[in-house]
Input
Amino acid sequence: MRNRIPVILLACGSFNPITNMHMRLFELARDHLHQTGRYQVIEGIMSPVSDSYGKKGLVSARHRVTMAKLALETSDWIRVDPWESEQDTWTETVKVLRHHYNEALRAFQSKKEFTRNKHPTESSTGNSLSCQQPVLPELKLLCGADFLQTFKTPNLWKEEDIEEIVGKFGLVCISRVGSDPSQFIQESDLLSKFQHNIFLTTVSWDGDKLLCVQNGEKEGRGWTQWIEGDEMHLEIRVCGVTCKQVFKKVQ
Amino acid sequence: MAMEDPDRKTEVVLLACGSFNPITNMHLRLFELAKDYLHETGKYKVIKGIISPVGDAYKKKGLISANHRVTMAKLATKNSDWVEVDDWESCQSEWLETLKVLRYHHQKLLSADVTNSLQHTVPITKLGRKRKQEQNSHEPVKKKNQSPVVKSVPQVKLLCGSDMLESFGVPNLWKLEDITEIVEKHGLVCISRAGNNVQKFIYESDILWRHKNNIHLVEEWITNDISSTKIRRALRRGQSIRYLVPDVVRAYIEKNRLYSPESEDRNAGVVLAPFQKHASDPKSSQALSN
Output
């Protein structure tokens, strides 16, 4: 757990209404980030859009926020934040990110003050993050491939906003087998510049082999797994280097 | 003469047989989709849903103890007002053909129905008295609550996905005469996704085609890719199954550490019970399609 970067996941959307799929996005993103070994997801925030967004069929924010709260009642790490829904005018996604980042920064700074003022022998046990100097968390936007695609729509996004979202914050995009967000990223100069901060994982069947492609900071990262009789073969690739390991079934 | 009420709907019980290893949100959705479909035809009224987990003697690879599977299904349906779990099949020491489970539940339904009918058609006075009153009555129109109740026979229909229907074609898995009786006497409600091969499958079989009016195909427009196999795989890999199965089921699996590489290896190399049973029966290898 040491040296892992704390991450807060933020999902913006209508949540009209919230569904199991929305909540799955969080679970999948957390699993993925944890499995990279580099991140520790400390919080998930769902931010329903305000009524002033004017989308067709959007029910009152009051209801959408309440439903999301009900759905997340039993979650110990995901919560609903009504700030965006309470704004008078529609708030650009980048502004929502900035707001929540500033909130996280504020919380981080007060935590830092707290640990600094604490007597060394009174340091709390258990949470490894509070035993050491607290690490500044990163805030990442959580979305599906359809959201990423909207970057293509002319006049929908300001280029400098996209730059800030993927450059300063980062994106975790969950996509389905079959769609190809990685290609979409490659085709966009802007997005490919910030590839290192866009994390995509696609897992699919390649015949009888399980193929995982991880698009993120490192080039050509992924693995392939398959069974040959009593053996499981695992091939791991990154930056053009391939490692292979064969596991034998325990008899 | 008693008149059959044309507006009277056929009462249906939906029976889902399977491993439920574990039960998932997808299984629960099958019932909802089937009920909606049957109600929309205007001809049926779904009165109950039954989940019947298969017994351990089925010997499927990765099948964990029936006790756990039944418990999880019960937890999942705890708050349902119409879907329940029946453990009769899972308690049998030998594997039972699906048709036998259908027959059992059909018989149960009929006996319960007879009891109900007796209770509701007889008014406060005794039967004999009632008849006497009717004979003396000069009323041309009988009051509604005095006319004898005639319902069409309630039915138990097998609820399944397209994979089960298509498994009819697997040699030695089903007996042809069982398939015939299932579609002829009971009926099938099959939930599948757009673009599936189910219609073609039915077309290519004379038996299924003959009884196609009793095979109800329901389209799953809001697709749900959850399968028990994928759930077990995610669990082995330490991945979250939250929101794919009811939370109480997830908690139960976690508490009892139910699924692991070891549990997945159970029955490895063992012949599946129906194959074992039908191996020596020439009738079982009769082809379904012609």
About this structure: Residues 98-121 of chain B form the longest helix (24 residues).
